[in-house]
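User: Once you have settled down, look closely at the record that follows, taking as long as you need, and be ready to discuss the fold:
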Amino acid sequence: MLERGEVANSWRRERWDSLRLLTPNWQSRLPGYGYQGPDPDGYMSLTEVTGFIEGFAATSGAPVRTGANVTSLQPAGDEYRVTTSLGEIRSRTVVVATGACNQPAVPRFAADVPASVEQVTAWDYRDPGKLPDGGVLVVGASASGVQLAAELARSGRPVTLAVGEHVRMPRTYRGRDVLWWMDASGVWDQRHDEIDDLERARRLPSPQLVGTPERTTLDLNALAALGVELVGRWAAVRDGRALFSGGLRNVFALADLKLERLLEAFDEWHDASGRDVEVGPAERFAPTRVPQAARLQLDLHGGEIRSVVWATGYQPDYQWLDVPVVDAKGQLQHVGGVVTSPGLYALGLPVLRRRKSTFIYGIEDDARAVIGHLAAYLTAGR
């Protein structure tokens, strides 16, 4: 097992200081290893996540080689040649477990933002004090975007949030964490070959959730109550002005509709399951409030905005992968983790085999299936 940095490197180096897991502690489990602390309904901090992964590495006895940066993977006959900072390795099979969050995805027009405005990504952001004084434009309204907008607003800064497609979700529903419902009702167990539009499912933004001791719901209504100004998706920069798309009402209505359908599905599952589980009565949530007059542009030269935080997601980095298995969009070509090149496999990608694939607790089922295929491949080649 090759790790370019330390064990849990991305959690140590590539996350902001206040970040907590979106999943409750009881859901943090790996093969033969799970959360054992006093707060199963809480959410791990960065330090706790790092310790959890370190503990699993030690308990499992996995042969992890740290500081092993992979610079190239090439076919070599019926093997693969893996070139690393620690030397070369040859292997008949390779599992690519680098994930889908290797580099921030920032639109090209970021290059047109005036130099007077500092730009950082969610990858680079650490805390409000590291940004220049003054207003902040946060771009993206998935989990990262709403969390950073809330933190910056609470620090006393004027915050504008550019909102595109998003997944609205309450932190709790009928007295239980919403992710309990996702798990118990089987939503997250839906297989990749059961999904009508798999490509779209893999592109879905992360739900608007935050892990706090109070189990707070952090949606756009909550942000507006904090004083965050909501504008449409940032579409372009022209003559030093940020141009935002209109149609916030439609964007909000679509997110609200999807939330309503999800809650109805939870209720139907509960009524039909016959499970003796204590939950509260069915709930419905107020629609997302549309600003009376959302701005369609903002002068980036005027001093109102001093910094931009790009929370526009991530993309994989396969520049080191010298095998023709990456499509025109930069995505690894695979079916359920079995890559199109024989002996090459993947883990940790969105909806790899199930909707829960990218969550800590979701990796075990995927890994068993992928490694089962890998073992059969090795056996057949003997």
